[in-house]
Amino acid sequence: MAGPDTTGSLGSHEERFLKAFEEYSDALFRHASLRISDRERAIDLVHDTFTKVWSYVRNGHEIEQYRPFLYKVLNNLIIDEYRKQREQSLDALLEQEGVSEASFPELTEHSAEALAATLDGKQAFALVATLPDVYREVLVLRFVDGLGPKEISVLVEESENVVSVRIHRGLKLLRDLIEKNTTEREENRVIKQKKK
Question: How far apart are CA 43 and CA 28, in angstroms?
């Protein structure tokens, strides 16, 4: 993926780096914000990613493929971020910040269709978050970040076949969770209607 560079000028490396920044910065931001759920911290992590990669290039190393290399650096920074964070419940955070339900525009009145679409998307992301890390990581990389199994295999340091199997198994688990969740919601709706 990368190694010391014995040929080429710094100018051509700078052009490749700038091109990679233009092509991948938005996708890296989406990936980071989805993984850590903190917009400002996600911006910082993406900035740190590009800073580290530029230092690596300035030190004379060649990067053959920027996309997987950038994701690898970002994922390492995200892992470091998880290690630093201490666990806090959502309720504790809301109390600490003095936030009430009225602060969330999703909880105000909307058309039924818009609210249902919003909830379905949020529920899907919530269900993805409940998957084991090994499946969640490859599903996010595949379907949110648009990486192929070969690129994911470089990032997670597993064979392409292992990545494909994890994607398949992760999707099966997600389908099962969605079906279970849908069934439970329907049963709850029927129970509520019977009580009326």
Answer: 9
